[in-house]
Predict the 3D structure of the following.
Amino acid sequence: MIVLGVDTSCDDTSIAVYDASSNKVLSNIVSSQYEFHREFGGVVPEIAARKHAENIDLVFLEALKVAQVSPSDLRLVCATNRPGLLPALLVGLTFAKGISYNLKVPFKAVHHIEAHLFSPFIGSEPSYPFLGLVVSGGHTLIVLVERLGRYKVLGKTLDDAVGEAYDKVAKITGLGYPGGPVIDKIYRSYDGDYLKLPKPKVSGLNFSFSGIKSAVRRLAEKGAPTYQLVSSFQRVAVSYLIDKLKEAVKETKVKRVAVSGGVSANSLLREELASLGVELYIPPLEFTSDNGAMVAYLGYRKFLLEGEDSLEVGALARSQIT
Amino acid sequence: MNRLSLDLSLPEGSVSVERNGELLSTVSWNRPKIHAEVVYREINRALSLAGLSREEIDEVVVSSGPGSFTGVRLSITVGKAFKVLGTKVLSSTTLTALSFGYEALGFVPVAILPARRGRFYAKIGKFQGDLTEKEIEEKVKLLERPLLVFKGELPPQLTSYLNLKELTPLSVKLLKLPREELSPLTFHYIREHDAKPPNKRG
């Protein structure tokens, strides 16, 4: 069964073609909008939506071309409908529903965070239960996945997402947007001492990144060297994520961990995760940021579990994973 | 030739179907927030009322704005979902569709749509843009036999001019447009600067 996956929840226009029969991603095209948002230091929803609408047909045609399939090969269309930037979500959702309508094939709406949770298993099948750590520009949470469709959120950020904190630190220090890759690169080249940054004290498995961000701002204003400052930030942010994950493993006694989202591409986080002593699943780099492949992968499995969705399904800016 | 037209740029969404220039069906709804949810159901309804199937549609015409930014995108995006699967899709601005037909009656039509923040999208001759009520009046008073054609509410300062509230759904008017008024799919947001955050608009 050939499945189409569409994601326009934030600033990446992504469409993938997934062969569910062989569990292989045949194409995963991502049109990134970084250059259009860079001057604003973050994603501007209206600009994101306009770029999605300009590019979505081109991304669709490219995805089919790379996958070497024709539209008539598609048997299921899946699209992210929640949560995300509403005007951006509406473009991918409306386009995907149109493909489903015109081809007369089923449509499945997909929860973006749920798709991230399962992205480390693309090409394989997950074993349950597992702990999912989703770390991206929009989300930071730890979820106990008991089985497909049954989740317990153990902790989430109370303010900024970790990727958002990276972007803000990069903005404070004049490193541009997005912050994650550039800070990680600087960290790799930096070999000096680290500044002392506070590790937030939030009880349980919840997160907070606003305190670290404010500390970075104060130190930047006092003239702290940029490379030292952002490297120190990365060290404490990653250490904080690892501490929480260790706590979650200890609390649940679940030693199978799947880490996903854009920040899962971070090299220090990957190193630290590897030394955790758990059964670890991390997606290949192309499936860390927002992508259509994870939407197709999860959408297909949810379709088997729940059946198709109506074409009248709407988009939701906010939606808890339940 | 069977044609389907669609407008989601305005608060009143509508879909129409025609065969060889004869209008077969029109459906409309007046809840802008549900455009994205109902659009394919309404396309289906319009086709069903026309006694046609999706496969029998040869050409689609969609509105390309100006109007609600989200609505403009939805109109074009639905058009793109037809286009990538091989159907010919064309577009026209909402203002062109709104003003069409009145020139033949001897008037100089001035199309006006609400654009929020005290401004209005207007088409006056070949000009299409967003203007204040005062700016529209300055242009209108230079015209001979102007007819103000509008959707929504007409600015109070302009009610002294001959005016007409257009009740025909825009999708019907899209189908009436001659081919030279139609163009390949494109966006007409007009207020480009509004896409940026308020403190970056310059």
User: Anything to note?
Assistant: Chain A touches chain B through 32 residues (CB under 8 Å). The radius of gyration of chain A is 19 Å. Residues 226-252 of chain A form the longest helix (27 residues). The mean pLDDT of chain A is 96.
